[in-house]
Design brief:
The structure is a homodimer.
Chain A lengths: L12 H8 L3 H8 L7 H14 L5 H8 L4 E6 L10 H16 L3 E6 L3 H12 L5 E5 L6 H9 L3 E4 L10 E4 L1 H14 L5 E6 L4 H14 L8 E4 L4 H14 L5 E4 L2 H13 L9 E3 L6 H4 L6 E3 L2 H16 L7 E3 L2 E3 L5
Parallel strand pairs in A: 1-2, 1-3, 3-4, 4-5, 5-11, 6-7, 6-8, 8-9
Antiparallel strand pairs in A: 10-12
Helix pairs in contact in A: 1-2, 1-3, 2-3, 5-13, 6-7, 8-9, 10-11
Chain A binds a DNA duplex through helix 2 and helix 4.
Chain lengths: 338, 338
DNA sequence: TTGAAAGCGCTAACAA
DNA sequence: TTGTTAGCGCTTTCAA
């Protein structure tokens, strides 16, 4: 058989109607499970559908109903990080679960270039989705304002600065960072540094703010290094730099678990013991936290809840209900690294 | 302002036409960038579009053109693993790059339940996409046969047993596993075991086959443990089990880098030195490989190429061109763990 | 309970 | 170069 698949004309509702000896209207009613269809008619239509192999054309249906029953999830993540950040998977799955239950299809659109950015905006504008969840937007992200301009119901996960005034769901990164830093202080650490990351995202920026707050007058800017991404590599390099700057450092707040894992490797390579010589804490409570030795003390953030709540925010807007900003709780998980 | 966003009727091509004092046909020509439009007309239309805020309705367009210019990427991955497997991100990005250049929108659909499976099948059937790439299908995956039945141009990444006869792109897992096992043998290891994973996927199954082939008569089934997923946890437990069964084990092939990283932790906790006491190799050359100490010897598989090639296979079918099965090359990356 | 007919917004063939 | 017109396949009145 040649590779060219002859997509012979698909059966339409008209084919079903004539095969069943009924009108288009009746077929439509059966397909949509409406009342006021006689049992005979229903059977005849179902039989005809099977016989001609009919499947409804979504474009035609969307055109007349003016809805698509699909929601976009827009992922705007730097190349290297996509999917190395375990939160994204959880957010995706959380959103999918809620939408699936409401009988909406989640379609994930990834933005990896300016060209993508424009195409995705067109996709939203074209009416192919009824709403959008935006994850990992950066400060002044163009797609964010495009979404607002398009006027499609939308919600952010997180709340980057410079972002339009749309509903969002987030955690209180400032408070959480403050809390875990305080516990680091509480264990008697004297020289506490931070490996900050992703300062152009609300999460990165706010974690740094919480850290500084907690330290108050004891905050020392020279004990803070900054990297663009939440990665293992950032932790590795960041810790090495911190050790160069201050060999007596005895406490470190890493902006994420992946960063903490990298930092821990650097610490061990320098011959220091965790937590005896240096205490270290992370953020996320991702699978990283259980992989390090010793296991990581960290902040547990409910990534799947972020996703499901964002999805609910979008559904609420579609239904004309209020969609208030949501701030979810975090908890400190104390293990052995500090 | 109330949260209910009044989505006042969107401007249609008719609104533009009357605003510009021209016909629908001319407007359509301008919008689609066709020739045979006078400069005056073009300017008038563009001006009118801006004035009334027109955006083309995709459903209407798809209905008449009978195409969507979108390609689905179907991800069917167990909950925990989604996005912990760095390959998926690379595959996604690779496919996106190719499709973006061809002006197709990649829409990722995730399957996390039977309900999802049905809804995704409906989505494909409805004509909302012109083709599909299927990643991480398992043996006899229902979505795989659904795709075949639907008759939409499609390609697999990987080639699970029991999968319909559709084009696919894969690496030769058997040969690659054989090659790296041979190098393990070549370094003088005498008691070589394997931590196998995902035996219901072609990758997992074939890596095991390659391992057994390479060992030939020296293959010892008691030195093989098997886990369902390619995870760090599988490596940790698997290695502990292997050490219980055979404390003198001196070589291990882990089915993926994540598994190898877990195994290495177990080895270190048991007081053994890598590579002096035990040599260990992985598979993927993912970011895991650079994170372990010592760094991992592994098989480099071109994950982004898998994605881009699969996308090309789908585009070829859409264009009526041949879409032959593709087997991509892998290379052994020799570092310090064996 | 069913049928007939209008029309969703757009493209494309044909005529002018 | 432009306008007119006939649908794409479906839902949804309105009548019967």
């Amino acid at each position: 058989m040649p590779p060219t698949r002859t997509r012979n004309r698909r059966a339409t509702i008209n084919d079903v109607a004539s095969a069943a000896g009924l009108s288009r209207g009746t077929v439509s009613r059966v397909v949509n499970g409406e009342r006021y269809v006689s049992d005979e008619a229903r059977v005849a239509v179902e039989e005809a559908i099977a016989r001609v192999g009919y499947v409804r054309n979504s474009a035609a249906r969307n055109l007349v109903t003016q809805e698509s029953r699909a929601i976009a999830l827009i992922i705007h993540e730097p190349h290297s990080l996509l999917f190395e950040d375990p939160n994204i998977g959880s957010i995706l799955l959380g959103a999918n679960a809620v939408l699936s239950k409401a009988d909406y299809q989640l379609v994930s659109l990834i933005i990896d270039s300016d060209r993508d950015s424009r195409r995705v905006a067109d996709y939203l504008r074209g009416g192919l989705v009824d709403g959008a969840v935006i994850v990992s937007a950066r400060a002044s992200d163009p797609i964010a304002s495009a979404v607002r301009d398009i006027g499609v119901p939308a919600a952010f996960v997180g709340h980057p600065p410079g972002t339009p005034d749309l509903p969002y769901v987030a955690i209180d990164n400032v408070a959480a960072a403050r809390a875990i830093t305080q516990r680091l202080i509480g264990t008697g650490r004297r020289r506490i540094g931070m490996i900050a990351s992703a300062m152009d995202r609300d999460s990165g920026h706010d974690r740094f703010t919480g850290f500084r707050d907690a330290l108050g007058g004891r905050f020392d800017a020279s004990l803070v290094v900054e990297y663009p991404l939440y990665t293992y590599a950032a932790g590795l390099e960041g810790m090495q730099e911190l050790l160069r700057r201050c060999p007596e450092i005895d406490g470190v707040f890493a902006a994420s678990d992946a960063v903490a894992a990298g930092a821990m490797t650097a610490l061990q390579e320098s011959g220091r013991k965790v937590p005896d010589d240096v205490g270290i804490v992370g953020f996320d409570d991702s699978s990283w936290a259980l992989r390090t030795r010793p296991q990581l003390s960290t902040v547990k953030q409910p990534a799947d809840l972020l996703g499901s709540t964002a999805a609910e925010l979008v559904l609420a807007q579609i239904r004309g209900l209020p969609s208030p900003v949501q701030v979810l709780d975090t908890t400190v998980v104390w293990r052995d690294s500090a």
